[in-house]
Amino acid sequence: MTAPFGKVLQNPVQPEATAGNSRNANLFRVDSDGTVASVTYAPIAAITGANTNTRSVSLVNKGQSGAGNTVVATIQYNSGVNAAASDENTVTLSGTPANLTVAAGDILQWQSTAVGTGIADPGGLVCVTVSARYA
Question: Where is this region: Disordered (predicted)?
Fold first, then answer.
């Protein structure tokens, strides 16, 4: 069962100025069981989406061992999918409810992945809202 009680986890992420490169960063160690309710990304500079050579950003639950690969939320900046500078844009949550469940000790990682030759990622602020879960 989830409840409206929880917390917002915030962490800055570094830019990836080289369009073809990818970057992963461990953001948070979850301190209590919960359910991810929302994820936003506020890039420091505008991102203009493009087809073929683009960028995808995702929040991935690496689990407690660091070996997990559960995608919690993702957005791909294709043509028409843009982000204004310093304006939060919603990162789409997984449609699989189990992917939104986190346990105390899980590591949440931000992955900025070049697709094709990619576009630059200016870096910015990631906010993750985790609702408390009660047995």
Answer: 1-20
SS3 97: helix
β-strands 70-76, 92-93: how paired? antiparallel
| CA pair distance 119, 113, nearest whole angstrom | 9
CATH code at 38? 2.60.120
Q: Give the Cα separation of 110 and 32 in Å (integer).
A: 19
Which pTM value belongs to this model?
0.93
Indicate the number of domains in the chain: 1
- Which 3 state secondary structure label does DSSP give 98? helix
Contacts of 68 (CB under 8 A, 6+ apart): 60, 61, 62, 106, 107
